[in-house]
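PROTEIN DESIGN WORKSHEET
SECTION A - STRUCTURE
LENGTH: 243
TOKENS:
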């Protein structure tokens, strides 16, 4: 997408979230948002970053000023880090003909990864999310049954995860990946005709990367992106543990 059109899309969404109050993305803010476009940050990721920032604003319970795009940058870039790791893509390099050697990434995009949670804490979080989802109306037939299997499997692994080291820990991590894949397979079955729309959304998110990736890595990234969108649609936890 053209950087100007990309900025206008974000401007329109931000205006809607600001209850019609329009704050133009110009000057330094425009350059910053253009750097997101050049880095391949999907519009959907920017939208989720804006929503995340807005949720914190609203949680305070006070009258707030209209939200500016600059205030959302940390959330947008954190989510982009998460998206890249989940999908398996790298930053788009600078293609300038005058660039000498490896290009520096756009300002603020290549950020250090936050400290990750421990394996036991991860399992506890997945159990909490899965249990909470069971308390809600079933999104599609088969989803609750799949979540119940996840909970049963993790209850068995929970005790072993504490203090697990070396090979024992590697076995647990591999088991989590297997459980995660089984959950995604169940979600694909439950999605039915929704899968076509999810695949289209995944292609849109990867649009900036398609011409810069070989066929096999792109196919893997497309599958990972579709799986992530599927889990978001059904509000499913990510069971695998990314080390």
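SECTION B - SEQUENCE
RESIDUE ASSIGNMENT:
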């Amino acid at each position: 997408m053209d950087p100007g059109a990309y900025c206008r899309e974000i401007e329109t969404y931000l205006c809607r979230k600001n209850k019609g109050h329009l704050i133009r993305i110009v000057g330094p803010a425009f350059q910053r948002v253009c750097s997101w476009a050049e880095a391949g940050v999907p519009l959907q990721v920017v939208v989720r970053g804006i929503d995340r920032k807005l949720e914190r604003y609203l949680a305070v319970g006070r009258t707030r000023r209209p939200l500016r795009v600059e205030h959302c940058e940390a959330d947008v870039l954190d989510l982009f880090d998460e998206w890249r790791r989940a999908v398996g893509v790298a930053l788009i390099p600078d293609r300038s003909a005058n660039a000498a050697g490896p290009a520096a990434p756009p300002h603020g995009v290549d950020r250090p990864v936050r400290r990750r949670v421990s394996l036991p804490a991860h399992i506890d979080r997945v159990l909490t999310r899965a249990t909470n989802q069971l308390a809600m109306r079933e999104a599609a037939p088969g989803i609750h049954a799949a979540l119940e299997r996840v909970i049963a499997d993790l209850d068995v692994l929970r005790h072993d995860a504490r203090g697990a080291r070396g090979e024992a820990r590697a076995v647990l991590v591999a088991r989590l990946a297997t459980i995660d894949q089984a959950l995604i397979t169940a979600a694909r079955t439950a999605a039915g005709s929704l899968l076509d729309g999810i695949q289209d959304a995944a292609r849109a998110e990867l649009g900036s990367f398609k011409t810069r990736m070989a066929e096999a890595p792109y196919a893997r990234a497309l599958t990972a992106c579709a799986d992530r969108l599927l889990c978001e649609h059904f509000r499913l936890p990510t069971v695998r543990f990314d080390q």
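SECTION C - NOTES
The chain has two domains: 3-87, 119-234.
The chain is about 65% helix and 0% strand.
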